[in-house]
Amino acid sequence: MKQYLFVVILTATITLVLAWAVWQLSMRYKLYPGIRERDVHKTPTPRLGGVAMYLGIVAAFLASSQHPFFSIFWADPAAVWAILGATTLIVLVGVADDIWDLDWMIKLGAQFAAAGIIAWFGKLQILSLPIGGLTVGSSWMSFVLTVLSIVIVMNAVNFIDGLDGLVAGVALIANGVFFAYSYLLVRDAGATTYFNLASFIAAALIGACIGFLPLNWTPAKLFMGDSGALMLGLLMAVSAIAITGQITPSQLDPDNFGRSQLLGAFIPILLPITIVLLPLLDFGLAIIRRVGAGKSPFSPDRKHLHHRMLDMGHSDRTAVLIFYAWTAIIGLAMLLMYIGTASDWPGEYLLGVGFGVIGAIACLVVTLMPPGPRPAPVTTAQEAS
């Protein structure tokens, strides 16, 4: 665990220093776009914070190559280099979009290319679903399912990037939960070491978000832009595939694993989904809304979930905190349920169910009962996707 803590601290420190440098350079050379009609913020703000997060994560990967505890995923480095290559591609395209506002077809093509690099060259594919011994039928089905999953999560995370600190905080909470899950899942699967690529990626993402939040918290001095949001989505999807999609169903067989036959068999596939449930929900609603209106599914608008919360009367900061609460409650509830089913101890399982139900009710009340009309905006807020 000390090694993972080192990854978090290293990534956070480098990201913070570089984010400050990017902000200073962007302000000096006016590297920021004008205000768009759909934007919430009122002051031109640099959007290149994703570059600092990317460099912090790359530094963590390079440091891990010199650390014997992480040699397990450097023994066959193809997957690591594919991840770094795909991440570099998506960051470059994101930076170009943040500066020149690229056509959505170009961005989507780059997303499919990045996902393809990981699935084809990195050999990181969804080979099985730990649900009753279900395996993917063919290599091509694995490839297609993997690519689609990565692209969907990338866009889902990018779509909620609309308020100060929203994506960075949601990703921080989600990856914290996923780190605990992946660490415990490897242990419960009988691995000889707890060091694995999925937990490492989650730790690096935690560090990047911690390092970036001080400059992104309201009023934000720096936005992560598409380069940061797409990168977060890419790596979150990859970390889930690197562990859940690679474990064979026999390793998690209820007779050997001691889990509940009912919901326990579904938790290893449900938990990676639930930690990005809000972004996926916003993404799905946006696609339905735009296609139903005869528009491109990637045409921007001002009807995302965070926009609706602002229109209901929530302040920018309150809306962000509510998103944090929803993410934490859903993720922690599933994690507690997993711990309970994995240890065959119903206490944690029932605690997870109760925590999720009570927490969801509380969040629903707070979400639907804003304090009053929204005051005139006085702080900088993140751009809408």
Automatic annotation (TrEMBL):
Protein location: Cell membrane
Chief site of localization: membrane
CDD domains linked to this entry: GT_WecA_like (cd06853)
Transmembrane parts of this sequence: 6-27, 48-66, 78-96, 108-128, 140-159, 166-185, 197-217, 229-247, 267-288, 318-337, 349-369
Presence of keyword Lipoprotein: no
GO molecular function: transferase activity
InterPro entries (UniProt xref): Glycosyl_transferase_4, PNAcMuramoyl-5peptid_Trfase_CS
Membrane-topology annotation of the record: Multi-pass membrane protein
Keywords for this protein: Cell membrane, Membrane, Transferase, Transmembrane, Transmembrane helix
Enzyme nomenclature, EC number: 2.7.8.-
Enzymatic class: transferase
Protein name per the record: MraY family glycosyltransferase
